[in-house]
Amino acid sequence: MNHIVIENLCKYFGDSGNRVDVLRNINLSVRRGEFLTLFGPNGCGKTTLVNIVAGIENYDSGILKINETHSDPGTANPGVSYVFQDYRETLMPWLNAGENICFPLLLQGVNKIYRHSKLNDLLERFGVTIKPKAKIYTLSGGQAQLVSILRALITNPEILILDEPFSALDYQTCLSLYDKILDIWRRAGVTVLFISHEIDEALYLGDRTVFLSRRPATILDILQNEMPRPRTLDMMGSPEFASLKKKAIDIFQGEIIRGNTVNQK
């Protein structure tokens, strides 16, 4: 069953005299419980697209449906949670790890006893060993980003958006978090939209990877990853993964050629 349906969606910024087209005729269906990754050039509109799904950005034409219900432009979708790119800008340093995770419940007026119970359940459910009373500045980058992810999950969302959540982390930490995020996704049962600028990351994590062109973004192609789950990091060295990556590179080589042709005109 499709959880998210996007039809002929277009988005531009500015007015008619200074208009910048960002998204052009995007057509995409996302299955319930799918882990979908999005990959494309910097500034092509990946974040704009997921912001539209979250309801924090308008769209100018087309259709967006969530749970088969039409979502009007700029209308907040309460079943969506968002993990932003840089944990250092989104976590509150004056709160400890547990308080950061529970902050959405505090905003909802949930009492302290229930917040603590929910926090303990969440940590146990996802096998996270972070100490709730730990100060944010004492956590590693990977631990801090896990706090951000748990905060997004504490309200039991149906859709989880992650906008390049590992881009501020070193490669070793990223590798250690790939399997953790897949385990959390499996246990939570949510639909995931994951933006990545690393092709190996996008292909390894996703059920499918959507390739966007440079702006105005269109969908170049969608690759299906048939590797079984649960996945392990050694799969990234397999012939199957190498074949998938070659297809991805071929897609973007074509886009580079098209871009160079346009720039020469």
TrEMBL record:
InterPro entries: AAA+_ATPase, ABC_transporter-like_ATP-bd, ABC_transporter-like_CS, ABC_transporter_ATP-bind, P-loop_NTPase. Residues 4-239 form the ABC transporter domain. One of its GO terms (molecular function) is ATP binding. Keywords: ATP-binding, Nucleotide-binding, Transport. It comes from the Bacteria. Gene3D superfamilies: P-loop containing nucleotide triphosphate hydrolases. This is ABC-type nitrate/sulfonate/bicarbonate transport system ATPase component.
